[in-house]
Design a protein that fits this description.
Blueprint lengths: L4 H15 L9 H8 L3 H13 L3 E4 L5 E4 L8 H7 L26 H17 L2 H6 L8
Antiparallel strand pairs: 1-2
Length: 142
């Protein structure tokens, strides 16, 4: 599995909102774009997907921009990656939700890919913006 720019940039943009008071005030897209060095048109497309997934809300005008739609402890890495259509499974044969085999006849190695995909999905579900920023509530607590 190789993460695409959609996943990497989407996650960076959401972390940027979280650390720059994007939970309490609207942050202009050009500010996020400049800080993260992501092209504004590309970022706009990603944020539209985030809005559609109810991860951010928008406001137009001079005081407009984006802010988080939920508290940072309620937005998981999985939510973000899913919103931007980032593939979360290792192979096409386990393309279903949570790495389930999609073929009528699965290959003998299917179990390996399925278990690895399930692990990736579980890590992404267990990590929130809060755990990424503050290091609490994530994998470090195990």
């Amino acid at each position: 599995m190789k993460m695409t720019t959609k996943g990497k940039y989407g996650l960076r943009a959401m972390i940027d909102l979280a650390v720059n008071d994007g939970d309490t005030q609207y942050i202009p897209l050009n500010h996020i774009s400049a800080r993260q060095q992501i092209s504004e048109p590309y970022l706009e497309r990603l944020m539209a997907k985030m809005r559609k997934a109810d991860l951010v809300v928008t406001h137009r005008g001079t005081q407009g921009g984006y802010k988080l739609a939920r508290p940072i402890d309620q937005i998981s890495v999985r939510d973000i990656l899913k919103a931007v259509d980032e593939p979360m499974n290792l192979t096409d044969c386990v393309d279903g939700e949570d790495g389930q085999c999609m073929a009528k006849r699965c290959c003998p190695s299917r179990l390996v890919w399925q278990k690895m995909s399930e692990s990736i999905n579980e890590v992404a579900r267990s990590m929130t913006l809060q755990s990424l920023i503050y290091g609490d509530g994530g994998l470090d607590d195990e």
